[in-house]
User: Fold this.
Amino acid sequence: MKMTLQVVIEDEDHHTPPMVKEVFSLERRSENFCPETLGLSLDEAKDVLAEIQTTLVTTQAARFLEQHSFCPDCRMPYPKNGAHQITFRTLFGTIKLTSQRFYTCSCAQAKARRQGQKQISVSPLANLLPERTAPEFTHLQTKWAAIMSYGCTANLLEEIRINLSHEPAWDRPGVDRYWASCDGS
Ligand SMILES: [Zn+2]
Assistant:
């Protein structure tokens, strides 16, 4: 048998057709039926979560950019001014997002001048995500780092999804003092 998991995303306005995306599929052969193949394995569950998370986060980011691609006052679309990738870390995977930069309109620039600022371009997504890390992820890192070593915490977090070997969030001052060894590292 083959099981396929689809995600259906519908916008609130219902003006656009729902987006349907296949995120995961697996096959189980009936002759291999045994306790190990009954249900999802941990690796399969992690893949499912990562795919759903990536689909949700990238869609939310795209919708957010659409809603912030024009001036809220004069409704003028902002001209595009390049894009770059930002990395957003979540408990269920690290996701690359395209962050579009826009030139602002003349009324937004005049408004900024009145507030003593000089703003000719804006990156809505980069401004929304200054930490580049989901608060729940940061909370769990800090909580676990307070009670066990880096090696133990990295191993434990790897069990649920993520590989921390290149995670710069761990380089923060105050976190490494907890990394006394429980695994000899
Ligand atoms: Zn405007």
